[in-house]
């Protein structure tokens, strides 16, 4: 196998194992066996289990939530938001264990940095989906409000995946409605473009 292909194979197997069980329950020996490589080769590509885990989390969080094309005039904001929320929840459900660990980054600055970068990408994605590019570039408060929404989305995902207080459908409806209201009512109000 070519080096890039071998690296992708190891990363894919590691992601699958980290999705199934928490980080502490997965060993390098198990990852190497699942990928069909020696531990030495695994270490050659990723160094330590922690580096491999950080690479797996980075890859999982860098996957676009849903392949929504750039905003086009005439498209319904609600339909685009609905599709994006659906894709994001699908991504979280497939990577539940990794996501929940990433949310609890606590005192891990590297993992916190990866999660923060993913939050910024989420905001970029929302801006692209709803066509707010020009406004977001000229008005930083738009980005600030969307970062606030990303915090709401994370807390909602924890209520669904970790605490079981919400079903996936309820989480979807809550996030869809919150984002649509933010886009249609709250952002214009804060920017002074809507009557109070």
Automatic annotation (TrEMBL):
DNA-binding region: 27-46
UniProt GO MF annotations: DNA-binding transcription factor activity; transcription cis-regulatory region binding
InterPro entries for this protein: DesT_TetR_C, Homeodomain-like_sf, HTH-type_TetR-like_transc_reg, HTH_TetR
Stretches of the chain forming a coiled coil according to its record: none
Domain of life: Bacteria
HTH tetR-type domain location: 4-64
Classification via PROSITE patterns: HTH_TETR_2
Keywords: DNA-binding, Transcription, Transcription regulation
The protein's name: TetR/AcrR family transcriptional regulator
């Amino acid at each position: 196998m070519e080096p890039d292909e071998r690296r992708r194979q190891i990363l894919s197997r590691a992601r699958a194992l980290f999705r199934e069980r928490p980080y502490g329950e997965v060993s390098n020996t198990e990852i190497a066996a699942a990928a069909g490589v020696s531990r030495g080769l695994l270490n050659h590509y990723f160094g330590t289990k922690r580096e491999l885990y950080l690479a797996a989390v980075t890859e999982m969080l860098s996957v676009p939530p849903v392949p929504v094309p750039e905003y086009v005039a005439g498209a319904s904001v609600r339909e685009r938001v609905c599709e994006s929320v659906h894709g994001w929840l699908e991504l979280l459900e497939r990577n539940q264990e990794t996501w929940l660990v990433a949310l609890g980054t606590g005192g891990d600055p590297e993992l916190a940095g990866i999660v923060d970068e993913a939050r910024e990408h989420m905001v970029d994605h929302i801006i692209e989906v709803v066509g707010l590019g020009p406004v977001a570039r000229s008005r930083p408060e738009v980005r600030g409000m969307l970062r606030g929404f990303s915090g709401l989305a994370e807390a909602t995902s924890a209520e669904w995946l970790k605490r079981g207080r919400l079903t996936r459908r309820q989480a979807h409806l809550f996030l869809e409605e919150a984002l649509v209201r933010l886009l249609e009512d709250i952002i214009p109000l804060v920017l002074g473009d809507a009557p109070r």
